Fold these 2 entries.
Entry 1:
Amino acid sequence: MPLIPPHPLLYKALVVEALKEDLGHGDVTTNALIEEGQQGVGHLRAKEELILCGLEVARLVFRCIDESLAFVPFKRDGERVLKGEVVAELRGRVSSILKGERVALNFLQHLSGVATLTNKFVEAVKGFPVKIVDTRKTLPGFRVLEKYAVVCGGGSNHRFGLSDGVLIKDNHIKACGSIKEALARARARLPHVYKIEIEVKDLKELKEALAAGADAVLLDNMDLETLKEAVKLARKIKKDVILEASGGVRLENVRDIAASGVDLISIGRLTHSAPAVDLHLKIVALLP
């Protein structure tokens, strides 16, 4: 199934703000050195192996600078790109290419970094019937793009925001008084279409959640042995309950977590700690 990028309306304001931040009152260096009519060709190139994400965002950056610029992608979002490969070509005013260069690269390097890290986790659990999913731990304003980057890396999306699904966490439980009471209120007050997920931290809370009819359970920060016991217990009590493991997930232990039998592994670091990958933009030719 082809990847469908988010509609530009969902992130155009972010692109515009980034350009305003970078350009300020104008690019004084480019304005002083480059003739306005000078035409050229620029190549966006990978400097390391990566999973690509953000081409349409980069296209929008340059379109906001100069609608006459031609942006020609050579790769697709979600594609593995090798070191040295060109991912896109730009043709048009050299001054326009230079004015959009840094902002376009910032988006591409960050989003491709999220996709690349996600793909490492996905590859690490290959062979197990488990999904790697993201969280709401995203940079403010970047959520729709970062969650798209997770999908480009082969991962799946958890809820996009608080309005997308029910996830009862420890502070909700504390405010309600108990797991049973929290689930009872959710059942009584929410439409029937919602599945209800609740967070538990030990086997006692897991039993209480299952007895109260939770549709899904987030097994939070459990050590591996407790996690295995929790999965066995849950499958015995309610075979079709959705089980999500979260907390302390690293590349070094994610395969062991997948082997426990959970359905989902949610990882905050996919978005909040993904290192940027290395791409650059070089003017490769000047045109008459």
Entry 2:
Amino acid sequence: MGTENRNEKSKELDLLGVGEIITLMNEETAYALEAVEGEKESIENLITGIIERNADRIIYAGAGTSGRLGVLDASECPPTFNTDPDEFIGIIAGGDKALRFAIEGAEDSEGLGETDVLDLEVGPRDCVIGIAASGRTPYVKGALRAAKEAGALTGSISNNKGSDISDLADFPVEVASGPEILTGSTRLKAGTAQKLVLNMISTIINIKRGKIYGNYMVDVNPSNWKLERRAINMIREITEADERTAADALSASGRRVKTAVLMVMLDVDREQAESLLSEQPDIRKILTTDKG
């Protein structure tokens, strides 16, 4: 299995200097990037499948590093795209405690994976994506089996070709990132490759759901000073309004960038802007229709 093999380039890793190790790690990361590009079609098929299903929830299931990366990606969607916390969900073998501590044996239980999926009452309106570098983690296999039996759309992300979880997925992605410089330590380039694929899944789905305008995160939740400044700058740049007008619009909109943009550009009040957004969440389409 590729991820468990010994990397010929790093057989004397302990004898290399710091700079040499950095160079080697960068070279191996570049290889992981190439592997992700090589799976572009499979990644596109998975994302398109989710969009076409119009899945209510995207649920990542994994153990160890793979599970943590799934939880990380899911947890970053609400502040970035103002999604409901239940739209992107990450489950990890051993539960939340496993985010910080190794829970021995948790990943070896198919039953635990099945139970975690069933506890979420997964159904046909959901998509469950199993993540495992080896492609054979029992917890992930159990999660995918339970999801499939419940009628959910299934996807998988592994770092080996011909993996077990690929057989359980409607849309498998196999990013063969190869042996690690530290033998078997898949938190390295295998984990990097997984994170890149997860970035693509969550970002592209939210783009296609009208969560951005141009390349602006117009559904961002301005929950701190930095994000508030970002929100004001977005309003100012999109509408070409001055700083004061943009700040006042953000305040009057209930701190919603999309609402504020429509208020300024269409000269409507908050209630009218929210009504438009309730029918069409994509502000580009609203503005195009208004101009037409």
